[in-house]
Specification:
Mean pLDDT: 78
Strand order of the largest sheet: 7-8-9-5-10-11
Low-confidence stretches: 1-13, 412-430, 574-589, 830-868, 1328-1353, 1473-1480
Number of helices: 48
Length: 1480
């Protein structure tokens, strides 16, 4: 027992022998075993100095080669004298010992510590100037020596011999404390650049790392203000995304050459083995300390129940206090270090996996694939696979912990210890593919939202996506049934293993007449069983977790190992630019012989593996600096030829020789990444910055962009949106053209780049670029122009006309072909009227009405990060349902009651002395069964009812909000941001949020039950509970304010990487052509680094919380042990055992509660985003838009524009005072220059732009402003410029997209009318041939495949219509034909108005005539409004509307408008110039 500490006896008690114990030694002991005591004393006396003398020279040798990292400062002037003083005092102590003839057991440690302190002076000098933070080695040495002094003082205090301590050791102790304080100071304020930009973690030193001091800055900022991504400290230099993905790529390149299921896992292991090694030591130490807790409980119970001499009593009390401090202080410290390092290992894994997935996106794949698969792999599978190290380290550590626990339990119970090893093995059902399918469909819809709205398909697409969500949830519930089994099994192990173990021991003890159960055995065994139960539960989950991780690796590896296209091109000039991609394959170089740019020798090309050859025996030679124009009808292989020239398609046979490895490429569908106009033009090489103002200004002039930028609110800093959604079609094409010019490449490839430009703008830009005095000729660039139009043939140095049979109809110069007898000779050239072009340009405006954004793609959505909003819980609970919530709460309350009663029942059982054992064991078993049934009901409720129901309800709300959002939202919001809501947010709502809710309620009820038990066991502890509760409340308040924001930042930051993947996948061909792979890879690594900062910071903040709460538990443990020592006479073994077991459990429950509460609060960030999105994104429908039009509306098709003004935004008018009446059945053409308001006129009819008062648009006499917008759109037939195809759907689903329930026969007939049926038949034949090789003696007809267009409707037609669109690739022109076929099928469902928005812009002249003929015949009774740049398209119209700067400047029959002197329409016609076909 501790002595009374009265002031009168202080000196006597500490410095004089105990009169009752004349045999008392001079100091206490740490162990009763002499060998163990000798070992411990040896470690204390020699360990710190010996370790330091070994490690310090190595550290000094390393620092000698480093440069100074600190600026001039005076800190060393304070530290050096203290270090020298310590060394001097140690020397004095050693000399004094020699003079006093001290034994070597005393003298040797003094000499050793003197040597160590001398070396520390040298190390201090190097560490101060050449280390960015406090010295870890020196700090640890000082901590160990200070601890040594304190233990020695404690052992002398036990013997009441403190006055025997000398002055010199006290001075040394004080000096070391002072030096420790000085050395622990952070150096950030004195670091030189660039070291002052290092992460706070790297510069925080040992104490900052162990106790997470550096986190306090972020916690303070999060509590007092709103955190932004820029506030996140950078990651450690060891977490460099570029270096990590480069290392992983090297290892993967080695492994992928060999077959093996685990190649990717092995590559990841080899690239990250170093950080994995650092995990072992802190985890082992943590495991050892955890296993010491039952020892502490056993010794505490024994101490309370035993009678000892005063010295032994004090000595054992000191040991208990020392053991309590070491255990409950060491566990949180080493756990924090272990988890922090493990978080870094996980980040390394995610960086490595995301890096190689992204790198793979930049390769040319030899397959038709779902392009969004990479996004799912990156966002879902990479996270799961990166957690493999977490699972691995948990596995070996839990195995070690369980083995130690079993050994300890065997010492208590013997063979009965085997019962806790009951393990249940389950399997896992994967549902990731269902999630991927839903995300793919959602992305397709988001990418084409404008077209979906134009065609009135919003409700159809919403139903389709929600249907896929329903299918996903079915698989989700099937998977969760297995999770229920797993969790119930783990709870059964936790509840029944101690019950069965103790019951069996009690039974066999009574039968065999052994010692009956007592409180020591019960609570020690219970602590050990609880110690085993935690790792056993973890081991129980290893198999399903292992299956999930291996499945993620399998999916990623399967995606990565699919072969790349073999680049079969030969390079004429080995010294040409090598900045392009490096592809494995047969790409070779050959010596140049002349000025040849590109040569094709008997080349055959197919557009896809499942397609027939589209080009055969192509031979041609093009010279450097020439303009080559390639033309031909739709489907003749123009784009396929271009892709082969770029290396995107391998030729089946023949040779392609090229002098260029990279090219400035403008694809047929303009690709633009989200960013500013300037960034789009300048490209990624200089981070979108202008390095040459003169070149940039000239590029803007050449592409006619100055007027557009003038009209944009932010000029060239205007955000263009995902895929350039904020721009018109003409602006997007001119922007991609500007990018090609600014890049300054020697080869320029333009694939139908002028299709969206009006004739005048096309003529104007062509003059500046392609004439003899144009920019391309001045630069000597080789230009390849793919076009269906004939206007540019006269400018060409070489013309290639492709025929429909896969060959070259004719080729040569314009002059040669004109003098021949082929297709070109039938064309009549009309010289371009440059004066008319100039007049046309002077009277028109080049700008579009653009929807401008103000949000950078890297900017994250700002949401409310303030205090917890209780309305969020109400919002979430409304999605769950009150009845489900009541079942959950009632079940968990019953569980807590059963679990709370069990420890107190065991106390009574232990104090019963073995009597009525059958009664106690039976009740114990019934309590366990009651707890099991209640928790099983709770788990089933959360997983099988709450999770799927709330997830489906919230997804439905989110989808409804997105589908009803105005077009301005999609113009100003990155697609990746919106898609992130359907992936990360919904995944969190499905998986994290319900379980966090379950854990919160469970932890609350369990903690309350433990508090009640603790108050009963140690009533005096109840005094500390209010203070403990207040401390926990204050800590969680500070913590939650920050963690909630970090989780929201983490969710938002993930959109950066998702957007990067989406943009790269869509523009991979353009990126490869320009040779920008490395730049985009670096940019993706930068965004990945940014996105991981909140995640890592959240992990560190959580570790900070665990550390603080564990130290609160440390205080409770010290109080309990201290009270047991002080009140030994009035404390029973049952009370102390019960109290310490409660502390053991309460520690876990407090951590679980705050972690679960934090998980719930931070997961509610997803709910906050959904609710905020639903609240902030106002539907485009207004309060007055409630009227449904009649069922046959519009029956006649009369349209009236009355003083119509409309805008995309309040500040920019797209239409101004337009008044015109269109009679029923009229054929109307709308013309004008790019950006004149043509499309805006159509959009006003579709209510996609906001009409301004007092203007009105009436259709059949009804004001459309009073009608539901989607109802209006769903009654009109619209053919947009960009066909909307869902590539993962079938031909049937895409064709009958309006669900008209059309028979197969009619679908086939419509496809035959537009000339596409034969294309699909050939694709089907080729696919069947590739899947099942045809015998050499047979033909395709022999195999039952009809090559003609006459296909039986019962079998083959259905099979063809059920082909996936990805397997039948169509050219841009063929897609427009498909869009026309779709419109023909809509006739039975919709009214008598047809809108065509540049519906023939990508087809050749003959196909254009075919499409116009189909429109005239099929829609002869309809009102047809056609927006066109080709004037010949609308020359037979009844009425032509000429738009300019948003105004209607002319209206009338085309023949009348052509007669007007200085008229706009006449100027447009005169400015077209070019070539027209002679009439037959």
């Amino acid at each position: 027992m501790w002595p009374p500490l009265g002031l009168a006896r202080w000196s006597e008690q500490f410095c004089h022998p105990d009169p009752e114990d004349n045999t008392r030694p001079a100091r206490g002991t740490l162990s009763d075993n002499p060998q163990v005591e000798a070992l411990l004393q040896g470690i204390l006396r020699f360990g710190p100095a010996a370790w330091f003398l070994f490690i310090a020279p190595l550290r000094i040798a390393r620092l000698r080669g480093e440069k100074l990292v600190v600026a001039r400062n005076r800190r060393l002037y304070f530290k050096a004298p203290v270090a020298i003083l310590i060394c001097s005092l140690q020397l004095i102590a050693a000399v004094y010992g020699m003079l006093e003839h001290a034994p070597w057991s005393v003298l040797a440690p003094r000499l050793l510590f003197w040597a160590a302190d001398a070396v520390s002076c040298v190390l201090l000098f190097f560490e101060h100037g050449r280390n960015t933070g406090p010295s870890t080695v020196l700090t640890l040495y000082l901590v160990l020596t200070i601890f040594n002094h304190l233990v020695n003082a404690g052992l002398k205090y036990v013997a009441w011999n403190l006055c025997d301590m000398e002055c010199i050791p006290i001075a040394i102790f004080s000096s070391k404390v002072l030096l420790l304080i000085l050395e622990s100071q952070v150096k950030r304020s004195i670091l030189r650049p660039p070291h002052d930009q290092l992460s706070a973690e790297e510069t925080s030193g040992l104490f900052g790392t162990l106790f997470l001091w550096w986190v306090n800055t972020v916690l303070s900022a999060g509590y007092s203000s709103t955190l932004r991504l820029a506030d996140m400290p950078p990651l450690n230099r060891a977490l460099d995304a570029v270096q990590i993905r480069a290392t992983m790529q090297r290892e993967w390149d080695k492994k992928r050459k060999h077959e093996g299921r685990y190649n990717l896992l092995l590559a990841l292991l080899k690239s990250s083995w170093r950080p994995n090694i650092a995990v072992f030591l802190p985890r082992v130490l943590c495991t050892v300390l955890r296993c010491c807790q039952p020892i502490l409980i056993s010794r505490a119970i024994t101490f309370v129940g035993s009678e000892q001499a005063p010295f032994e009593n004090r000595n054992e009390a000191f040991r208990l206090m020392l053991l309590t401090i070491l255990i409950y202080a060491g566990i949180p410290i080493f756990t924090g270090v272990y988890l922090r390092i493990l978080a870094q290992v996980t980040i390394v894994g995610r960086m490595a996996l995301v890096g190689i997935i992204y790198k793979d996106c930049l390769n040319v794949k030899d397959r038709v694939d779902d392009k969004t698969a990479a996004v799912t792999l990156m966002s879902v599978d990479a996270d799961s696979a990166a957690g493999c190290w977490d699972m691995f380290h948990d596995f070996w550590s839990q195995m070690l912990e369980a083995a130690i626990g079993m050994y300890m339990l065997a010492g208590e119970l013997g063979w009965i210890c085997l019962f806790p090893l009951l393990v249940v093995v389950d399997r896992q059902v994967e549902f990731s593919r269902a999630t991927q399918a839903r995300i793919s469909a959602t992305k397709a819809v988001l990418d084409s939202m404008k077209n979906i709205k134009m065609m009135g398909l919003v409700e159809k697409m919403e139903t389709r996506i929600q249907g896929q969500r329903d299918q996903e949830l079915k698989k989700f519930v099937a998977f969760y049934r297995l999770l229920v089994v797993y969790f119930v099994s783990s709870v059964a192990l936790h509840l029944f293993s101690p019950a069965i173990t103790l019951i069996f021991y009690a039974i066999q003890a009574q039968i065999r007449g052994l010692a009956s159960v007592d409180t020591n055995m019960i609570f020690t065994s219970l602590a050990i069983i609880n110690l085993i139960a935690a790792p056993a539960n973890s081991l129980l989950g290893i198999l399903p977790e292992l299956a999930s991780v291996l499945a993620a690796f399998d999916r990623i590896q399967t995606h990565l190992v699919k072969p790349n296209y073999e680049d079969k091109r030969e390079f004429l000039d080995p010294g040409s630019s090598t900045s392009g991609r490096s592809l494995s394959g047969a790409a070779t170089s050959c010596a140049p012989t002349d000025d040849t740019a590109i040569r094709l020798e008997q080349v055959g090309i197919r557009p896809a593996l499942t397609s027939d050859l589209v080009l055969e025996n192509i031979s041609t030679t093009w010279k450097k600096g020439d303009l080559i124009v390639i033309s031909g009808s739709v489907g003749t292989g123009k784009t396929s030829l271009v892709r082969a020239l770029l290396g995107e398609l391998p030729q089946d046979y023949g040779v392609i020789k090229t002098a260029y490895r990279t090219a400035a490429y403008c694809s047929q569908t303009a690709w633009l990444s989200n960013g500013t106009v300037q960034e789009a033009i300048c490209g990624p090489l200089n981070n979108g910055r202008v390095l040459d103002d003169r070149q940039y200004t000239e590029t803007l002039r050449l592409c006619d962009l100055n007027q557009d930028l003038y009209r944009m609110l932010d000029g060239d800093q205007t955000i263009i949106g995902s895929r350039g959604i904020a721009l018109s079609g003409g602006q997007k094409q001119r922007l991609t053209l500007a990018r090609a010019i600014f890049a300054g490449k020697e080869l320029v490839i333009l694939d139908d780049t002028f299709s969206a430009l009006d004739v005048s703008t096309q003529c104007h830009i062509t003059n500046k670029l392609m004439r003899s005095n144009g920019i391309f000729k001045k630069r000597g660039a080789t230009v390849i122009l793919i076009t269906h139009s004939t206007e540019h043939l006269a400018l060409a140095d070489h013309i290639v006309i492709l025929d429909s049979n896969g060959g070259i109809a004719e080729q040569g110069t314009w002059k040669d072909l004109r003098s021949g007898t082929g297709y070109t000779s039938k064309l009549a050239f009309v010289p371009e009227n440059e004066q008319a072009d100039k007049a046309s340009r002077d009277g028109s405006n080049t700008s579009d009405s653009v929807q401008t954004g103000t949000k950078s793609p890297d900017d994250l959505q700002q949401i409310d990060h303030g205090t917890s909003d209780t309305t969020l819980y109400k919002y979430y609970f409304s999605a769950i349902g009150i009845s489900r919530m009541l079942v959950l709460v009632a079940s968990l309350l019953l569980y807590a009651c059963f679990v709370g009663i069990i420890p107190y029942w065991l106390k009574w059982m232990g104090e019963s002395g073995g009597s009525r054992m059958w009664f106690y064991t039976t009740v114990y078993l019934l309590l366990a069964i009651g707890g099991f049934l209640s928790i099983a009901a709770a788990v089933a409720t959360i997983f099988l009812a709450i999770a799927p129901h709330s997830g489906n309800a919230l997804h439905r709300r989110l989808l409804r909000t997105v589908m009803r959002a105005p077009q301005s939202y999609f113009a100003t919001t990155d697609t990746g941001v919106t898609l992130n809501r359907f992936s990360s947010d919904i995944m969190m709502i499905d998986r994290s949020l319900p379980f966090a809710l379950f854990q919160v309620f469970q932890a609350v009820f369990l903690l309350l039950s433990q508090c009640v038990i603790l108050t009963i066991a140690q009533p005096i502890i109840a005094v500390t509970l209010p203070f403990t509760s207040l401390a926990v409340y204050l800590v969680q308040k500070i913590y939650l304010a920050t963690s909630r924001q970090l989780r929201c930042l983490d969710l938002d930051a993930r959109a950066l990487v998702s957007s990067s993947f989406l943009e790269t996948i869509e523009g991979a061909e353009t990126i490869r052509a320009f040779g920008w792979q490395q730049a985009f890879d670096t940019d993706n690594a930068r965004k990945l680094d940014l996105s991981l900062r909140p995640d890592y910071m959240l992990t560190c903040v959580q570790r900070w919380l665990d550390l603080v709460l564990d130290f609160i538990v440390l205080g409770l443990a010290i109080c309990i042990v201290g009270l047991s020592i002080a009140l030994k006479d009035s404390t029973t073994g049952g009370q102390i055992g019960l109290a310490l077991n409660v502390v053991l459990q309460a520690n876990q429950y407090i951590l679980r509660l705050v972690s679960a509460w934090t998980g719930l609060e931070t997961s509610l960030g997803a709910i906050s985003r959904v609710r905020g999105f639903e609240r902030d994104v106002q539907p485009e429908e207004r309060a007055g838009d409630k009227v449904q039009p009649p069922s046959n509306w519009p029956a006649t098709g009369a349209v009236e524009f009355s003083n119509v003004s409309a805008s995309y935004e309040d500040t920019v008018l797209a239409l101004e005072s337009v008044t015109v009446t269109i009679p029923p059945g009229a054929k109307v053409g709308v013309v004008g220059r790019t950006g004149s308001g043509k499309t805006s006129l159509l959009l006003s009819l579709l209510r996609l732009v906001e009409l301004q008062d007092p203007g009105k648009v009436k259709v059949d006499g009804l004001d459309i402003a009073n009608l539901q917008r989607n109802a209006v759109r769903s009654r009109l037939i619209t053919i947009p410029q960009d066909p909307m195809l869902v590539k993962t759907d079938t031909v049937r689903q895409n064709l009958d997209i309006a669900d008209a329930d059309v028979a197969d026969e009619e679908m086939v007939r419509i496809l035959e009318d537009v000339g596409l049926w034969r294309v699909f038949v050939e694709r089907r034949i080729e696919s069947a041939s590739s899947e099942s090789p045809v015998p050499s003696s047979g033909t395709v007809e022999d195999e039952g495949l009809d090559t003609s267009s006459e296909v039986s409707y019962d079998g083959q037609a259905a099979a063809i219509l059920d082909l996936v669109m990805e397997s039948v690739p169509l050219s841009q022109g063929q897609e427009q034909l498909f869009s026309l076929a779709r419109a023909l099928l809509m006739r039975r469902l919709r009214g008598n108005i047809v809108l065509l928005d540049e519906a023939t812009s990508s087809v050749d002249a003959n196909t254009n005539q075919l499409m116009q003929a189909i429109v005239r015949e099929a829609f002869s009774q309809h009102t047809v409004i056609t927006v066109a740049h080709r004037l010949d398209t609308i020359m037979d119209s009844d009425l032509v509307l000429v738009m300019n700067s948003g105004k209607l400047v002319e209206a009338g029959p085309p023949s009348e408008l052509l007669q007007k002197e200085d008229g706009f329409f006449r100027a447009l016609q005169a400015g077209s110039g070019g070539i027209v076909c002679e009439s037959e």
